[in-house]
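INTERNAL TRANSFER SHEET
From: sequence group
To: structure group
Subject: HTH luxR-type domain-containing protein

Please process the attached sequence and return the structure record in the designated field. Keep the field labels unchanged so the import script can parse them.
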Amino acid sequence: MLHTAEYKQIGEMIASCRETDFCARLAEWIRTDAAVDTLTMVVYRGSEPPIHLYDDFRNETARAGMMTYLTSTYVLNAFFQRHQTGLHSGVYRIRDLAPDAYLQSELYKGYEVVLSEREEIGYVTEGWPQGLEEIDIAVSLGNLVTAEIGLYRATDRGGFADEAIRLFQARMPVIEAAFHAYWSYSESRPASEEEAPRPNARIGFETFGACLTSREREVVTMILRGHSSESISYNLGISITTVKTHRKRAYEKLNISTQAELLSLFLEHVQSNYNAPH
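Return from structure group:
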């Protein structure tokens, strides 16, 4: 049974749904009885880049890492990829969301990411704190809009035990209700006229490699999303030999030879669309 102070904290958090400190209050409540070193909150709307709501990074390097993530490397994120196919509300370990070749791919060697065997998914955005285990709380807000509450704890401090997962799962009804109320109010406010246009990963995928055939583009897109040749073969219903042939031809047309070059070229394409006149 909850103590009086805990009921009060929940009440104050829910009452703040229309206030600017809601995310900070929600973060404080989530941390109750849970060993969390770092917490972040973003919202994904379709294939657009994440909308930053909250983080408790305290140093400039980590904040720069967050900015890099928000503007480019989010396209690699396993949560973002699953969100685009429809991710149900729940509590997930990030490693359980990643495609089969996420750890082995050369993709992440080429663009503002640091490869590390200490990381659950094999890499971390440059500047982002390393050596953290990650749990993600997903809140489905409807119409392909998903909130991601990222919880991080140092692996050398034991990471997150299954007991922590169960604790966050038990709190999901309150988290979902509070976040829905907050987001509904946020969406009802008039949009700022100064809001800048945002790069769009879906448009980036659809327009990338105009010289490629539709099948070559499908293969390239799945490579960018971290799938192995075996996974591409299974999902597209073609042989592994055919996958490799499409990949070879696509690389020749794009004048590249590695997955790292492919990623760099794609992110430059997304960013150029973002910077183009609107």
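Handover comment: Residues 201-275 form a domain with the Arc Repressor Mutant, subunit A fold (CATH 1.10.10.10). The chain is about 45% helix and 15% strand.
Transfer complete.
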